[in-house]
Amino acid sequence: YALRRTRELFPWFGYDPELGLLDPYEPVLLSGESLVRVPAPQQTLLMALDGLQPHGITTFAMDKDQLLAGLGSLAEKEALLPVQVIDSGVFSNLGTAICADASERSSRRVLTLEIDRGESARETLEIRKGEIKRVETTPPGPTLIYLSPNELTDVGMGFPGLGGWVTVPPSEVGTVIDARGRPLELPEEMTRRSQAFYNWLWELGGYMSTEIRAIACDQQVCAATPCLLRGACWCATARSRSRPACGNSDAGALMLMPSTG
What is d(CA 4, CA 148) in angstroms, rounded to the nearest whole number? Predict the structure, then answer.
């Protein structure tokens, strides 16, 4: 609802209810008690990916101290100060998302990664349509990733088939390669949908306890987690995000920074 309302107020806002965020935004700042309470950073990042459905490459940062609301009020009087606070590193780096959009059939290879951690040997990782994978990016330095998409895959470099090197900083979750496509297709049957979420969370290095999974199925709530932005709730189907299916009205908040690249 919040994203649709934003588009009504600002027609230039690049968002489609089915396809997600159409324009590049860097970074995406997440805030709000409902997101801070999420037990694992992997779960927070997956909620943001499923709710916002970004395209291309973007970084997600977390406002654990819930400073965004105050910065927004302060910006009316001191426009430069919030920018300085954001640049000071007060927000934790949740992870970098590389979203590969391809018209290939499921399980077909859409992207090949070459990972350079500054060591002697480089790693190679193949990504197939429908997959979500994680590349660990640990301190002290950044990780270099070369993206080699096939001719039908768009990774946000300008047009399909174009790749290149990407420098990603250390983060809590790492770099997530999302090749599940847009719009995100979720199984209609509740048990299969819950299992799909569990599998995606597992790929990101997180987990869901057996007890929470049972609650999710019994109450017909896929993730048993707070909603993101009042309607980007994971438990809603991909085509019905007009209101939170779980009834949770404790919404999170975000700030989208237009990319200058």
Answer: 34
- Locate the DSSP E strands across 117-196: 123-128, 132-135, 143-149, 153-154, 164-168, 174-178
Cβ atoms of 114 and 165 within 8 Å: the answer is no
Across 1-104, the runs of DSSP E, i.e. the strands, are 15-16, 20-21, 25-31, 56-62, 92-99, 101-102
Q: What are phi and psi of 51, to 5 degrees?
A: -80, -40
164-168 and 143-149 strand pairing: antiparallel
pLDDT at 216 over 80: no
pLDDT tens for each residue of 56-79 = 999 999 999 888 888 888 888 888
Give the distance from CA 52 to its chain's centroid: 7
Tokens 């400073």, located at residue: 67
Q: What is the spatial distance between Cα 62 and Cα 80, in angstroms, rounded to a whole number?
A: 21
In this predicted structure, the answer to whether residue 152 has a pLDDT above a threshold of 80 is yes
